[in-house]
Amino acid sequence: MPLIRRRSRPEPALLLLRTVCHELRPPLTTLTSLVQAWQQQPSPARRGELAVLAGQHAAHAEAVLSHVAAVAEGLAGTNGRAQPLHRILPAALATVPADRLQVAASPAALAWPVPSRSAGQILINLLGNAVRHGVEGTTVMLRAYVRRRRLCLIVVNEGPLSDDLAKALCQAAPPTGEKGLGLWIVRQLAATCGGSVDARPLGRSRLRLRVRLPRPR
After folding, report:
1. Which residues 6+ apart lie within 8 Å of 139 measured at CB?
2. pLDDT tens digits for 50-95?
3. How far apart are the first and last CA of the chain?
4. What's this model's pTM, rounded to 2 decimal places?
5. pLDDT at residue 195 tops 70
6. Distance between CA atoms of residues 100 and 111, nearest Å
7. DSSP one-letter string for 107-132
8. Superfamily of domain 79-217
9. Rounded distance, CA 189 to CA 79, Å?
């Protein structure tokens, strides 16, 4: 009778490195483009705007590295200090082109306390995935509201519910490539907060992703 080998769990160090590569690529690519645009822009006012944007993306990259350092030191389980959503929202929104983003948040949602490290990364991953994998040039919508003692974060974008996304919503191990990794990470972060992630198509051409988070204890 042949032996059946159990699939081994991914090594934490390897998963950590893959997470870093996945999360740093978008802000570093954008930062490089901003620096090049700054060098070619003669207008002092426009240079100032580009410098602000570059600073925001550099801050995001620094935040990702700080998160990795915390994980490496065994501190990620604390998820950072709980803060109201409105405190962490601006940094997450800064990672998405403003002309492609539409945001609506209720007062209750903005005041809802969230684990700052995990919630920030969840928002960054969801918005980044929606921009990269949605239909180019279309608007990504973020809604935040409180329902049944849960904070609901809804991201809607133009695009189908792909096979890679469906797998990332249910598989236990991380995907072997980059496809679905961002969403898989969102699932792990939401789970550590006692939350959940689900997705469903809206008609034939739109996709809704929802993260539900309880109030931190």
Report:
1. 100, 101, 102, 157, 158
2. 888 888 777 767 766 765 554 444 434 555 678 999 999 988 888 8
3. 49
4. 0.67
5. yes
6. 25
7. HHHHH-EEEHHHHHHHHHHHHHHHHH
8. Histidine kinase-like ATPase, C-terminal domain (3.30.565.10)
9. 9
